[in-house]
Amino acid sequence: MKFTAAQIAGILEGEVVGNPDAEVFKLAKIEEGTDGSLTFLANPKYASYIYSTKATITIVNNTFVPENELTTTLIKVEDAYKSFSKLLEYYNQVKLMKSGIEQPSVISEGVTYGENLYLGSFSYIGKNVVIGNNVKIYPNSFIGDNAIIGNDCILFAGVRIYSETVIGNNCTIHSGTIIGSDGFGFAPSENGTYNKVPQIGNVIIEDHVEIGACTTIDRATLGSTIIRKGVKLDNQIQIAHNVEIGENTVIASQTGIAGSTKIGKNCMIGGQVGFAGHITIGDNVRIQAQSGVGKNIKDGEVLQGSPSFNYGDWNKSYVHFKNLPKIVAEVEDLKKKNN
């Protein structure tokens, strides 16, 4: 996909200084620019690179005045960083602009879908599935019976959506993610074996949720596992049956949340955090990476450690943790003197 400087300036409402017909087909950092690439200069500490960059086009602020000769064509805008971000978004939309139903693929009886559906090859849509407008389902995906997918959703290659799952509008689900698999429910028997407890609930994902690659969200035993609107989940997260995650909470990679735990709104959770089951986490909670949470947490707390405790207390305690060998040696010396 190629764009000229004039086309880019039109998208960004900018001014071309140089060759309006200069063409680019890739993006680059200013210090790594090559022929055919587009870059930007926003941070003054990188200003020296604009005189040596081999990028064909560079987006700069209106206030930029070159001190030496340039080989790159400039596009002057009010805010170079925001304009470049806008261009990235536009580029991503163009790149994902697919439609049509590729073959081979299977659409079962009773399926309804809206306008501009893209269904990649080797995908399977189960019975009575409802799919909204402008949905992109990439190859090798599976949508189980009676699932509902809202408008403007993207399911990347290899996503698995089990039956009865409900997905809202403007959701993005990355490759390898599984939604609606059975919760981990087993009851011990008298002879020492475990009998599976049927998992007959579902998963509900509200609007504007993004889910990273290879994340697993289990269906509820009864009722629903719920991911509220605006939640952002990283790669490789495990969310167990009947968990509820509140609006606009963000969770980093490799976090595990045990069954029936409720997490509040606007929380920020670091990587590799472990949550015990059947606990409640308040709103606006911050939990540092690798913490272990085994009890209810009030609104606004900041935690670290395993088991986790107040972040400020943890930092103070850590000073003593790292000095333990020295403290033990001093105690031993005192014992010898007293003897």
UniProtKB/TrEMBL annotation:
<comment type="similarity">
    <text>Belongs to the transferase hexapeptide repeat family. LpxD subfamily.</text>
</comment>
<keyword id="KW-0443">Lipid metabolism</keyword>
<keyword id="KW-0444">Lipid biosynthesis</keyword>
<comment type="function">
    <text>Catalyzes the N-acylation of UDP-3-O-acylglucosamine using 3-hydroxyacyl-ACP as the acyl donor. Is involved in the biosynthesis of lipid A, a phosphorylated glycolipid that anchors the lipopolysaccharide to the outer membrane of the cell.</text>
</comment>
<dbReference type="InterPro" id="IPR001451">
    <property type="entry name" value="Hexapep"/>
</dbReference>
<dbReference type="InterPro" id="IPR020573">
    <property type="entry name" value="UDP_GlcNAc_AcTrfase_non-rep"/>
</dbReference>
<keyword id="KW-0012">Acyltransferase</keyword>
<dbReference type="InterPro" id="IPR011004">
    <property type="entry name" value="Trimer_LpxA-like_sf"/>
</dbReference>
<protein>
    <recommendedName>
        <fullName>UDP-3-O-acylglucosamine N-acyltransferase</fullName>
        <ecNumber>2.3.1.191</ecNumber>
    </recommendedName>
</protein>
<comment type="pathway">
    <text>Bacterial outer membrane biogenesis; LPS lipid A biosynthesis.</text>
</comment>
<feature type="active site" description="Proton acceptor">
    <location>
        <position position="241"/>
    </location>
</feature>
<keyword id="KW-0677">Repeat</keyword>
<comment type="subunit">
    <text>Homotrimer.</text>
</comment>
<dbReference type="Pfam" id="PF04613">
    <property type="entry name" value="LpxD"/>
</dbReference>
<dbReference type="GO" id="GO:0103118">
    <property type="term" value="F:UDP-3-O-[(3R)-3-hydroxyacyl]-glucosamine N-acyltransferase activity"/>
</dbReference>
<dbReference type="GO" id="GO:0009245">
    <property type="term" value="P:lipid A biosynthetic process"/>
</dbReference>
<keyword id="KW-0808">Transferase</keyword>
<dbReference type="GO" id="GO:0016410">
    <property type="term" value="F:N-acyltransferase activity"/>
</dbReference>
<dbReference type="Pfam" id="PF00132">
    <property type="entry name" value="Hexapep"/>
</dbReference>
<keyword id="KW-0441">Lipid A biosynthesis</keyword>
<dbReference type="GO" id="GO:0016020">
    <property type="term" value="C:membrane"/>
</dbReference>
<feature type="domain" description="UDP-3-O-[3-hydroxymyristoyl] glucosamine N-acyltransferase non-repeat region">
    <location>
        <begin position="21"/>
        <end position="89"/>
    </location>
</feature>
<dbReference type="InterPro" id="IPR007691">
    <property type="entry name" value="LpxD"/>
</dbReference>
